[in-house]
Design goal:
five-stranded mixed sheet, globular
C-alpha cells in the first residue's frame, strides 16, 4: 500500500514539473525574428518662394519616417501655387505645402494664393511680412503688430550675437547648420526648445486675427503649422 502511494506521488510530482516547464517556455521570448511590416513612408512636397532661406531651413530637419522634398522655386504668391500644382501632378505626394511671403505683393495676389492653395487641399505656410519673422519668434516673444521686414535681419543678428553666429539676410540668405542648431536648441530662460516657443508664439499671434483678410494681418505666420507637421516625422 505504501509502495502504491509512493508511485502515485512520483507521478504527480512529474506531472507538476512538466506543467512548470511548459509555463516557463510560454514566458520565454521567442528567438524567431518577427516579420517586418512593410509600410510606405508618407511623402511631403514643400514648394518655397525663396530659393535659399526656406529650403536651407526645411532640409535640415532630421526626418526619419517620411520622405520630404523641399524646393525653392523663385516664384511668388499665385504663380508659386500654380507651380506647386504642376509639381504635385508630376509626383505622388501625400501632402503638398506652399511657402510664400506677403512682402510687397498686392493684397489680392496674396489672399488669392492662399485661397487657391486651400481649394486644392495644399497646406499653406505663409508669412506676413516675410519668412524671417518665423525665425525671430524663436528668440523674441513678439506680440504681433507691425514690424517692417527691413528690421528683420538686424533683429535676428541681435539675438545671434551672443552665440557668435550670423545670418546674412541681405545676401546669401542661407540658414547654416550653426544657425539651425540654435533655432532647434534650448532657450536658457524658459528651458524649452526654441522651436516649441516659436510654434506657441506664432499660433497665439495668428489667433489674434479673424483671417478674413490675411494680407492685412501683420505680423503673422502660419509656418508653425508646417513645422508642427514635420516634427511628427523627426526621431
Amino acid at each position: 500500500m505504501k509502495m502504491k502511494d509512493k508511485k502515485a506521488e512520483q507521478k504527480a510530482a512529474k506531472k507538476k514539473h512538466l506543467e512548470q516547464l511548459k509555463a516557463q517556455r510560454r514566458k520565454e521570448p521567442s528567438l524567431e525574428r518577427p516579420v517586418a511590416e512593410l509600410t510606405e513612408k508618407p511623402s511631403i512636397l514643400i514648394v518655397c518662394e525663396g530659393e535659399n532661406t526656406e529650403p536651407s531651413y526645411f532640409n535640415q530637419f532630421r526626418i526619419t519616417s517620411a520622405k520630404v522634398k523641399s524646393v525653392g522655386e523663385g516664384y511668388n504668391t499665385v504663380t508659386l501655387v500654380n507651380r506647386a500644382l504642376l509639381l504635385a501632378q508630376q509626383g505622388n505626394y501625400d501632402q503638398v505645402w506652399c511657402v510664400f511671403d506677403k512682402d510687397d505683393f498686392s493684397d489680392n495676389d496674396f489672399n488669392s494664393a492662399i485661397q487657391i492653395a486651400v481649394d486644392n487641399n495644399f497646406g499653406v505656410a505663409y508669412s506676413n511680412q516675410s519668412f524671417e519673422y518665423w525665425l525671430i519668434l524663436h528668440f523674441n516673444d513678439h506680440q504681433g503688430g507691425g514690424m517692417h521686414r527691413d528690421r528683420y535681419n538686424d533683429k535676428i543678428n541681435e539675438h545671434l550675437k551672443p552665440f557668435k553666429v550670423t545670418y546674412d539676410g541681405n545676401g546669401t540668405k542661407l540658414i547654416e547648420e550653426d544657425f539651425f542648431e540654435l533655432l532647434d536648441g534650448i532657450d536658457d530662460k524658459t528651458s524649452k526648445k526654441r522651436t516649441e516657443l516659436a510654434i506657441d508664439r506664432a499660433e497665439r499671434n495668428y489667433n489674434h486675427f479673424d483671417h478674413t483678410n490675411p494680407a492685412s494681418e501683420e505680423s503673422s505666420t502660419t509656418v508653425f503649422r508646417l513645422v508642427r507637421e514635420l516634427l511628427k516625422y523627426v526621431q
